Amino acid sequence: MVDVTVERLSKKFGGLNAVDDVSFTVPSGTVLTLLGPSGCGKTTILRCIAGLETATGGRISIGGDPVFDSERDILVPSEKREIGMVFQSYAIWPHLTVFQNVAFPLKLRSVGKAELQERVMAALKSVDLDHLHDRYPNQLSGGQQQRAVLARCLVYRPRVLLLDEPLANLDAALREEMRFELREVQQKFGLTSIYVTHDQSEAMALSDNILVLSGGSIISSGSPREVFSKPQHRFVASFLGGANLIPARIVVGRQGPPQIVGIDAAGALLVEGEGDVGLATTVSVRPSDVSLVPVGKTDPVAVTGTLRRVTFLGEVNDCVVEIAGCEIRARTDPDGQWQIGETVGIAFHPSRTYLLAAEDK
Ligand SMILES: Nc1ncnc2c1ncn2[C@@H]1O[C@H](COP(=O)(O)OP(=O)(O)OP(=O)(O)O)[C@@H](O)[C@H]1O
Ligand SMILES: [Mg+2]
Predict the structure, then answer these.
(1) Do domains 4-235 and 236-360 have the same CATH topology?
(2) Does the C-beta of 43 come closer than 6 Å to ligand 1?
């Protein structure tokens, strides 16, 4: 069992708290993704775990063994942590063949010739590169180069795999394919892994758990479904899926305790919630959970607005509707025939419309 546990980790660069009191556990054999915008501390956390950076405070243990503890003065050197790392840049040696690149870590460890041959070919096979073992890197595609880097990590059987935006240099189609390949390799080897990205769909596809970071601190954590579908905070809601954040206030909508919320200016009822009447709050709803409905054709429409923009994106239309000065984005059926400037009704998917936590307005 190779859990990774990080407790109260902090890293200061001069006056900057790049990592600020971060704690998490990666259960053995699972993938944790650190997700967040540029500069939020993702790489710094990975480097602290790898031992390439010395944290200012906190504790890190791998498989139950402490590798860093600021209070007990424990600092295990990087090469003794048995960690594999894959970075954004390919870091593959151009003058060595694929085989020689992958063999390198075993040569450093003085592994005998026969065993080396066998392990290198097995590692290459696991990433589907065995047939290209005698090629040089410049004869490989970007995705194949990145797979060679992965094989070079796997060949020495690390206890933990750290991946820092490994797919960032690949084109969109390849990136998507590699996501699944990475996940397959990780599961095949049952490798405890920490993955860094600022790409939300990559995080969703690859992870068992996600930590959302901002300014060196954890803002949200949980399974991809938990983090994505119930965003509690403004930052998470807008970072994941570009949700609409609609200013609202709590109004009494029916008998009983106040529990209906409406857009303040329009007075339209949006979502059921709980809170004190009159309280200003924010409603979060993703564009894909907002639909446009023709006015006057069907049942009375609760919320109407003016259609300001329609952008055809292939699979969907990206629409902007203005309601009482508030712009709401909707992703709708690309076949819908709408006129800019017309009055449209909008409907919100009720179970996917959320009130953000009050302290986070
Ligand atoms: N060696 C360093 N010296 C000083 N400041 C640093 C150093 N390394 C990182 N920082 C700062 O620490 C903060 C976190 O950096 P980090 O590289 O961890 O961000 P990141 O989340 O990986 O960002 P990106 O997505 O752009 O890679 C940033 O403000 C960065 O400028
Ligand atoms: Mg980084």
Answers:
(1) no
(2) yes
Closest residue to atom 8 of ligand 1, CA basis: 44
Domain ranges of the chain: 4-235, 236-360
For the stretch 41-81, pLDDT in tens is 999 999 999 999 999 999 999 999 999 999 999 999 998 99
39 lines ligand 1 (CB under 6 A): yes
- CA-nearest residue for atom 22, ligand 1, is 43
pLDDT in tens, 174-219: 788 888 888 888 998 899 999 999 888 888 889 999 999 999 999 9
Q: Tell me, using a 6 A CB cutoff, whether residue 15 lines ligand 1.
A: no
- Contact residues for 120 (Cβ-Cβ < 8 A; gap 6+): 99, 102, 103, 106, 133, 151, 155
Question: Domain 236-360, what fold?
Answer: OB fold (Dihydrolipoamide Acetyltransferase, E2P) (2.40.50)
Q: Please name the residue whose Cα sits nearest to atom 27 of ligand 1.
A: 38
CA of 214 to the centre of ligand 2 (A): 13
Task: Establish whether residue 198 lines the binding site of ligand 1, counting it when its CB lies within 6 angstroms of any ligand atom.
Answer: yes
| Residue whose tokens read 């009375």 | 300
Determine whether the shortest distance from the Cβ of 47 to ligand 1 is under 6 A. no
Q: What is the 87 CA–ligand 2 centroid distance (Å)?
A: 9
Q: Quick check: CB of 89 below 6 Å from ligand 1?
A: no
CA-based nearest residue to 141, from 115, 120, 171, 163: 171
> Is any atom of ligand 1 closer than 6 Å to the C-beta of 44?
yes
Cα 156 to chain centroid, rounded:
27
What average pLDDT does the segment 223-230 reach?
83
What is the C-alpha to C-alpha distance for residues 9 and 320, in angstroms, rounded to an integer? 42
| Range 328-332 contact pairs with CB under 8 angstroms and sequence separation of 24 or more | 328/244, 328/246, 328/285, 328/290, 329/242, 329/244, 329/287, 329/290, 330/287, 330/290, 330/291, 330/292, 331/287, 331/288, 331/290, 332/290, 332/291, 332/292
Q: Which of these CATH numbers, 3.40.50.300, 3.40.50.150, 2.60.120.260, 3.40.50.620, describes 4-235? A: 3.40.50.300
